[in-house]
Amino acid sequence: MGLLVVGSVGLDTVSTPFDKVNDALGGSATYISLSASYFTGPINLVGIVGSDFPKVYMKMLEEHNIELDGLKIVEDGKTFRWSGKYHYDLNVRDTLSTELNVFEKFDPVIPENWRKSKYICLGNIDPVLQGRVLDQMNNPQFVVCDTMNYWIEGKKKELLELLPRVSVLIINDSEARLLAHEPNLIKAAKKIRDLGPEILIIKKGEHGALLFTEDVIFSAPAYPMEMINDPTGAGDSFAGGFVGYLHRNRDLSPKSLKAAVIYGSTMASFCVEKFSTKGLEELSILRIKDRFREFMNLSRFDES
Ligand code: AMP
Questions:
Q1: Chain centre to alpha carbon of residue 177
Q2: CB of 44 within 8 A of CB of 117?
Q3: What is the DSSP string of 9-53?
């Protein structure tokens, strides 16, 4: 069975101190799927767009072995649009506008033949919808879930109901503190794992990521980037690399989970090098493995 990915598919208008793009391909499911496609396939994407969604984007996704039978196209509907502006410090982003359009009525329907998928990646959408996806699945084994402060603040109860059904929660450091009401990340991780997810990943932006399981705390380094053009989608690319690698190997041992975190970080580093999804469109597994090895060398040390 393929890897099931559910989330937003949209058109992003993004400006950074270096450049600007209008109506470029974006959305959480888009980044997750493209990133995962280098490790496994097929990727079964579930989302919604309007009839204004450019066909060239669909073609590019299909060329990456991303199946679009679950992408609903609403006749005369308008695609989800998001606009953001990054500051000189690229960690600071203002959302300028969010036009939900067809996404407002998104009620994910999983095609019958995808309901047996064992590996699922739930992009950052309303936890109620994430739950509805799981309701339709036939005994999923490994559920990776992304969320954000908007849902932690606005739909806490629904999120707390979802968490026991999730295998891996991926959030950033400020979201972890918010969810746990705890400033210390180690204590926060313990509290969040007690809410349900066996595995927790806390992303720390340009400072790497932390993996927490019952037995393991693993700190992944950040890749020293000389040029970051557009940070949009970095978190989703991380999730895609992480779950794509695990889906291919079907191995959830500590060693494999650590490698998956590094592959996630690797894909995020490619994503931010170019605007929109361009950094993920023309990669090869060889280039990905080279950068994975660079990651290994970054934190390998010994006593002299
Ligand atoms: P990230 O940079 O990982 O936060 O992801 C950015 C992507 O999320 C962009 O491509 C947006 O299209 C998408 N996005 C932004 N706001 C929302 C939202 N409220 N719901 C779903 N997707 C969104």
A1: 20
A2: yes
A3: -EEEEEE-SS-EEEEEEE-HHHHHHHHHTTTSS-EEEEEEEETTS
| pTM score | 0.97
Q: What is the total count of domains within the chain?
A: 1
204 in a domain, yes or no?
no
| 189 is a domain residue | no
Secondary structure percentages of the chain, helix, strand, coil, to 5: 40, 25, 35
Distance CA 132, CA 134 (A): 5
For ligand 1, pick from 9, 28, 98, 129 the residue to mutate: most ligand atoms within 8 Å of CB: 28
What token pair was written down for 231? 């940070």
The ligand 1 atom at the shortest distance from the C-alpha of residue 235 is 3
CATH number at residue 30: 3.40.1190.20
Q: Best substitution site from 175, 228, 232 to test ligand 1's pocket, by max atoms within 8 Å of Cβ?
A: 232
Ligand 1 neighbour 47 (Cβ under 6 A) = no
**Domain region containing 106:** 3-170+225-282
In a domain, 36, yes or no: yes
Tell me: the pLDDT tens digits for 251-297? 999 999 999 999 999 999 999 999 999 999 999 999 999 999 999 99
